[in-house]
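User: I've been going back and forth on whether these two constructs are worth ordering. Before I decide, could you fold them both?

Assistant: Sure. I'll take them in the order you sent them. The first construct and its structure tokens:
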Amino acid sequence: MPYKCEKINLKETQKRSAKLTTEQREEIAKKYKTGTYSQKGLALEYEVSRRLVQFIIDPKKHEENLKRRAERGGSKQYYDKEKHTKAMKKHRHYKQGLFLKGELE
């Protein structure tokens, strides 16, 4: 039986897979355009990889990277069914906990 909270979308701040919020992404782009910050400096400041900062600054590079990855077989080459099942179960329990606390809409 599926959890009731499965169909409820999480708020941006509750999503654990997202490294940065939309506002932080915009801040990174603005700071880099001023020329006073380097990609490495921004990565250290926001505690993310330099590659993520690079993709935020130049979305075209991100699209090219996704295209090359799809040609190699995409993320399926790393897929582990048991690991995915455990991760989904853990995520459902996380959402259910938020739902029971009343933190979900």
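The second construct, handled the same way:
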Amino acid sequence: MPARAKRAPTLRRRLLFSFGAIIALLSVFSALIFSVVQQSHRFFNVVQGELFGIADLSGAVERLYGAADNYLHSGRKEYLSEYDRELAACTTGAESLATQLPGVLGPEIRDIGNMVLSMDELKSVAVTKYAEGLEPIYVNRYVAELGRLRNYTRSECSRVLSAYMVARAGEAARMRADLVKSEGLSWAVLALVTATCVAFALRMTQDISRPIHELAQSLVSFAGGRLDLPPIERRRKDEISTLLESFNLMTERIRGLVEEIRRKSELESELKAGEIKALELENALKQSELETLQARINPHFLFNTLNTLATLADIEGAPRTRAAVGSLAALLRAQLDSARGWVGVDEELESAEHYLRLQEIRFGSRLRHAVSLDPKAARLRLPGMTLQPFVENAVIHGLEPLERGGRVRIEARIEGGELVVEVEDDGIGFDPSKPAVEAEGGSRRHEGMANVSRRLELLYGRQSVFVQSVPGEGTRVSIRIPALAL
């Protein structure tokens, strides 16, 4: 088997490689920053939980003393229940903190737990004496002793809290230093990514924009009648290079054909009438060959190139240009697909909407549009490019003459077993009773509409297009055809 040919570089592969490098750099940077942030987040969560635990233990001791004091002064049983809950909270909290706090703070928390147990023993004695009918003056002595233990325990909690803040200060300083380092790293990586993106943008501008600009200038000169254009230099082997090669080949062949036609035209004046007719036929054949040659640039390639330009516009931060090129590419794709004859209603409406978006770029706020599609009618079929002449007529002849502009509405629905598609504008309208040939330049405003109407009438054997228009109010075109699935 012959060796497989080396694949030529393409715009897509170059773009993917450049984006891949940038994404890989950003991924590594994000992973490093995420690691530092996660470590800091875990540390501060631990510190917050331990601080809240110490505070909760101190609060539970206060509530424990309050419940005992309230019972010994009122004798109500619900205070004993409250006391039992707070005692459980104190002992559980002290044991949990003792296993979490660093250094000597754990044993000190256990000492606070032992103080709570001492308070509980003193409370039990006081409750027993209270039940035996001890005089209030002696009960107050127990309450005072409980208060003394409460104050001592609260003081110990404050001391442990201060010692904890000192113990964690070093770790917090190290964590802060790591965050400062990560911030510096962030700026460095940001500068690197920015430089990479700028270099990528400059390189892509040089590799793509410059040859396209040269091609555009050559096309303008060629359309202006300059046939002696020098060939455009090919710098790379990619889609743009293929486009330039096709243009060079086309111009070269056209020059030869034009020279040949010119020579034959000079001979026509010297021939008899019959010979002139023969030469006219031959020239017509050559003209057809010329037109065929001018269309040799593959329309599918042009579609792919437009998509590439849309991607480039997106990269260079030109969203309106990207949207316009995308709409033009979609409109070209729709025209290519219409060659198969039948299209879905949703595809036809999408093509019309792309055309309207392109016109909105031209007209600005003067042109608005709305498209409504019944989901049941989406996959019904109709001949390709049916709506385009009506939409163009609404924009160019209905709304363009108005300084205020106007609105185009397109709606597709099922009605009485038929597919109904309407194109309506609120433009200048016209008098349907007048002939289609208008006074301005003798142009046929409704020729495209008439062609579509005749085509539908031949397809379905009946009138399918109905036009309603009032001068100064607008025009509505209704298309009614059988509802057939695609």
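Notes on the second construct follow. The radius of gyration is 43 Å. Confidence is low (pLDDT under 50) at residues 1-6, 284-298, 436-443.
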